[in-house]
Amino acid sequence: MTQTDTTPCAASGVTRVLLPDDAATMALGRALAPLLRAGDAVLLRGDLGAGKTTLARALLRCLCDDPAMEVPSPSYTLVQTYDAPGEGGQEMEVSHFDLWRLDGPGALAELGWDDACEGIVLVEWPERLGELTPPGARYVDLEVRADGGRDAFLRGWGAQAEAVARSVEGDTKQAGEQA
Ligand SMILES: Nc1ncnc2c1ncn2[C@@H]1O[C@H](COP(=O)(O)OP(=O)(O)OP(=O)(O)O)[C@@H](O)[C@H]1O
Ligand SMILES: [Mg+2]
């Protein structure tokens, strides 16, 4: 398999995106952001250090239209919220959760989960959501590759997933050629 291969699998609805470095992870975040609307949940799965926060940071900066926006990891606060311009010029809340240290489902309610779901939620360690996992959520699974890069597997992103994968891998290849 070459470095630029995408492995779309229409039957299972999974699209693989090769991310050789963190710039590619950020490019994926920027490519996914325009697909999101209020009410969407993006569940970011992957081991410690897989790149979940890196992806969320790029998504948030794009959603908030601020490429330099400070996006701290919510690993201690568990949630950070941002105001983004939504459809029709109305403000929309985007919430970035890291549930690694979540202390039971009651604690999620205290973090304002229900209200957050009216905007966009980005969730690291979504396994902790249990029964509160939103139906129809969009998944990005990140896996560390033997060469140090990452593979991303997109699930639930619909027909646009393949176009996203091709554009990210095209940008990555171009950046590699220019380097
Ligand atoms: N595609 C990539 N290739 C190589 N390194 C990457 C890639 N994407 C992100 N990284 C790097 O991986 C490291 C960990 O990233 P990050 O903090 O986003 O992981 P995480 O999944 O949020 O970790 P945690 O589980 O601790 O929250 C960072 O140094 C980041 O730059
Ligand atoms: Mg993280």
TrEMBL record:
Claim: Nucleotide-binding is one of the keywords in the record: yes
Keyword annotations of the record: ATP-binding, Cytoplasm, Magnesium, Metal-binding, Nucleotide-binding, tRNA processing
One Gene Ontology molecular-function label: metal ion binding
Superkingdom assignment: Bacteria
Locations listed in the record: Cytoplasm
Gene3D superfamilies xrefs: P-loop containing nucleotide triphosphate hydrolases (3.40.50.300)
Entry's Gene Ontology cellular component terms: cytoplasm
One of the GO biological process terms: tRNA threonylcarbamoyladenosine modification
Similarity annotation: Belongs to the TsaE family.
Protein name (record): tRNA threonylcarbamoyladenosine biosynthesis protein TsaE
Organism of origin: Novacetimonas maltaceti
